[in-house]
Structures are given as structure tokens and as C-alpha cells.
Amino acid sequence: MLRSAPAAAPETAGIFHRHYLLVTAGACALVFLAAFESLAVTTIMPLVSRELDGADLYALAFAGPLATGVIGMVAAGNWSDRRGPVGPLYASVALFVLGLLIAGTAGSMASLVAGRLVQGLGGGAMTVALYVVVARVYPPVLHPKIFAAFSAAWVIPSLVGPFAAGIVAQAASWHWVFLGVVGLVVPALLMVVPALRGLHHTPAKAGTPEGTTGAQRWSYGRLAWATLAALAVLALNLSAQVPVAGGFLAAAAVVIALVAVRPLVPRGTLLARRGLPSVILARGLVSAAFFGAEVYLPYLLVERYSFSPTFAGLTLTGGALAWAGASAVQGRMGGKLSNLRAMIIGSVMVLGAVVLALVTTVLGWPAAVAIAGWISAGGGMGLMYPRLSVMTLAMSTPATEGFNSSAMSIADSLGGALALAATGIVFTALTTTTTAGGVPGGSFAGVFALTAAIAVVAVVVAPRVASRRTP
Question: What value does the mean pLDDT of the chain take?
């Protein structure tokens, strides 16, 4: 039998009780640093590209970590199911730090991209390993609260990350945006270590009698499919740069990505089968709708409404605050707000926000309409994301926690990646068009129309996250 590290914790203990305090602080710190690094790089990359003369590799510096992260997710999930989350967590943090060191000391754009690829591999694996740690350390009643804390840890960097990165780059060097994080990752991991001491045992294999063990086998086939999916994502991101066969390459990449992802998620996911498959699919859909639209909202405000970049970025800050606030609210409500109801309300809020952005673009409404809508979208994501994580663990066994956690992260990553690639293609294709009202901005309208369509599918899938037996 597995032993939880914080044994003897009272039933009324919260995630900040002394039995859980260190692991809560350390895990949230790791999530925070991964999010901070992701947002900080967005701020400094134009400077890095200019200094290293790497404009041709600019896009790959963002797409690469997302793609390699899929491989890390699958590997960490399989490893966690075999031996528990301890080894995967240590290895993922080591890879994350190695990637930071390579990128931080890079003297060429190619070296920086190599570091980003390693960093993405470690970051993807770290996410899955932390989810399995949550499943083994915290009782189910605390899962909504710890995942709400993770959501807040991911959102808060959007408030300070870009500004802090800009200050560091101007005052010292962009190199320290990477290297400075290294000194913070190690202390964060050390806080988690005490909780890992009781988790070295191999989890029981599904179907084995209680009291016996049977380690899962290495799934080399799933690793191969993950690699293929990662390559497809990269190809889709780069397809717009192919002058003649770009459309064919994009279509082929989407098909390959969908074929490759099937073995990486629960059976029936792409068919929206009730229960866990729809939970995983919903995660990918809401990620695609939200992040596919979010990238272009500040762009719209700058181009159409003449906002300054800083002021336009405050829109995302408002959405981030709403996300964090809604995450905290749903964590406090616990069973008073059912998972099913949180999913339905959250997905409708995201759809409404994207539709408001679309209507604002087409009819030339005031920017305040789209901004208010996006704050609502952030609230919807805050309601859904923690509950999707809770449902995934609740529908898992000790032998499948790693697989299902990696499937959720893969859906999240691939959903956002595919949507961003598709919206990029649509935006480029419609650059010279106008809206139905003769207002310039057909490219923005196309982007929001596509993401609204994805959000509609998410609303349709939302009620299916509950099995038929769920009250």
C-alpha cells in the first residue's frame, strides 16, 4: 500500500496545514516559475532575436517547447504509473533547469532554441508529475483547493512576469531572465522533497489484487505517438511559411496530430464519450477557444482602437485576475457547486466572451465591450480548469493517474497549439479583407469566428463530462 507523506493530518486540515504546507508552497512555486518563464520569454524574445540575428527561428522558439512538452507529458505519465511520481519529478526539474542554463548562456539563436526545447520537455513532464503528487499526497476533499492554488500560481505571473522580465533585460541582460529562475527552482523542489519520501513504492497495477504490486510496462509506442504529435504541431506552426504547399502541409499536420493523439488519451476521447473521455476533450476545447482568441485581443485593441501595448495588455491582466478569483471561489464552494454545473457555466462564459469579441470586431462596437467580455472569459476558465483536474483524478486509479494526468495536459497543450496555428493561418489569409459593415479587420473577425465555433463545441461537450450514473 502507498503511504501519504503527510500522514496523521486531521480531516479538517487545509492545504496550508502544517502537514501540507511545504509541499503546497513548493508545488505552487514550481508552477509559478514555469508560468513566469513562459510569459517572460514572450516579453524579451524580440530583443533576443535582434541581438542573436535569429528572426528565422523566432516562431520555433515558442512552438518548440510546446511540442517537446507533449513528449515529456507522456514519458512522465508512464514513468509515474510504473514507479510513482518521485523519479519523474526530479528528472523533469533537472531538464527544466538544464534548458534554462542552455538558453541563458546561448550565444546564437540556434542554441537558445535548443535550450527552449529541453526546457519544454522538462516543463511538460513536471506538470504531470505534480498532478500525480497531488493525487498521492492530498485527500480527495482537498483536490479542488490545491488545483485552485495551481491556477492562481499560473495566473499571477501574467500580472508581473512581462514587466519584471523587461526590467531585468534592461537593467542587466536578457540572459538573466533565464539564469535568474534557476536559483529559485531548486529551493522550490526542496520544499516538496519531504512529502515525496513515502511515495517511492510502485503503485498497484490495475486489476491486481489489493496488497500485491505489478508495475506498468514502458509504453514505447505511446512515446513514439507523442513524438509524432509533437512533429505535427511544429509542422502546422511552420506551414504558413511554405509558399506553395502550405495549405496541404497544414491539413496533413492536423490529420497526423489527431491520429497521433488517439493512443495518448482515454479511448473515446475524440468521440466525446461520457465521463473521463469528455473531461479530457473538454480540456482541449476550452483551451483552444480561450487561448486561440486571447492572443489576438490585445492585437485588435492596438490596431483598431489605437491602445498602447501596455494598456492593451491590461485586458489580459483583467482576465487573469478573474481567473484567479473564480478559481478561489470554486475551491471554497466545494460540493456546493457541482463539477458538471461549473463546466456548463464556465464554457458558456467563454463562448459569450468570444462572441462579444467577434461582434465588437464586425460592428465596430466600443472596445470596452470586448474587454468586459474577456474578464468574463477569465472567470469561466477559473471555474472550469480546477474542476477538470479534480474530475480527472477522481476518475483515475493509482495505476492510471499518470496516464490520465498526462492525457489532460496533452489535450491542454495540443488544443492550444492547434488553435493558435489555425488562427494564424486564418489571420494571414484574411489580412486584406474587411468586415460585413465595411470596417477593416476581416482577419480579426475570422480568428474570433473560428474560436467561437470551437467554444460552441466545448459547450456541447460540457454536459458529457458526467457519466450517466452521476446524480
Answer: 81
